[in-house]
Write a structure and sequence with these properties.
By secondary structure, this protein is mainly α. The protein has helices at 6-18, 25-38, 43-54, 64-75, 80-88, 100-109, and strands at residues 21-23, 59-61, 95-97, 114-116. It has one domain (6-116). The strands form two sheets. Strands 1-2 form a two-stranded parallel sheet. Helix 6 (100-109) links the parallel strand 3 (95-97) and strand 4. Helix 2 (25-38) runs antiparallel to helix 3 (43-54). The protein is elongated.
Amino acid sequence: LTGDDKPQFKRAKALFEKEDIIITTSVILECEWVLLYAYHFKQNDIMNAFQSLFGLSNVQLQDPVVIADAIEWHQNGMDFADAIHLAQSKDSEVFVTFDKKLIKSSLKNTAVSVREL
């Protein structure tokens, strides 16, 4: 996504041009963190890049529903990692956390029951 390492970029580009790609949820989570904190990308730019990448015909996501929910909730103010964790827990009876900000943002983004521990 950054192209900063030219040899790696060329190899990755060639792979994406020739192969079907499956991207795991954990890779997406780590990629967002690296782009945000190591490369200082803006959140909106990261989400736009993700949506472009995920829209490629040869790219499949491990759990596209989780990622779609996480991106939507993130665009509505929820931390991206929190959104992924919560989206992965949608079928749970309750999601328990110490994070008051997550509890507040979950109320306006999702029907998942989130409570403070």
